[in-house]
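Annotated sample (chain length 256).
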Amino acid sequence: MKKLRPSGGYRDTASFQTATLIYDATVWFCEKFLDPRSRTVDQMVQAARSGRQNIAEGSRASATSSQTELRLLNVARASLEELLLDYEDFLRHRRLQAWTPDCPEARAVRAVPRTFQKDQSDPSDQSDPSDLTDEQRAALYSRWLEHADPAIRANALICLIHQANFLLDRQIAALEKAFVEEGGYSEQLATARLAHRKKKEQPDPSDPTNQPDQKPPTCPQCGGLMALRTAKSGKNAGSQFWGCTKYPDCKGTQPI
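Output written by the structure step:
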């Protein structure tokens, strides 16, 4: 049986690939330039790891919970923001120069993905179709991330964190839009169950309600998508009805 909602596939997203690069480079940075007994080392490595792992966990959770997926992606975004501040603090405390967004070095780091990205059609994220390994991807940034100068490494990582955060912001915005327009997993599951039940009760193939791809009706008030709801109070408590997914902005309903 085909899954109601897809999940996984995070290894092919640019956000996860960039977060992996950031995590590996942060481990190497801390090993080379920071005291291993420092609490900062543990905080930076854990923040980098959290950015990567929560993208993966959110992707797997997407099959059953839009809210969980959004929450985990926001955790990843917050962890990378924390790591960004650590690298900015490293430069400031040591009076090392921070790159400006438009300096040649920063532009060179930002330009690297254009050398291997071919498909930029997905508005929520950009996949890397060239099947590069993590090692091959890291090699594209090695002249910065393996540099002997800690300022160059830190500045390059700041650029990469900004890129990862930009990608996560787009993913989060796309997921929020899809949740508003299509509803959450429980609503979609209830709609699919209703369609299946009608198919069993009305086996006539000429009956339009018996089609496997039956879609919820549109709202009579705003024309938006409707989802199956259950009345929680009143004389119809416990009964089901179609309700507009834009509620409470739109209170359109339709009987089943």
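Annotation: The radius of gyration is 24 Å.
Annotation: Helices lie at 14-33, 39-61, 66-93, 104-111, 134-140, 142-145, 150-182, 185-201.
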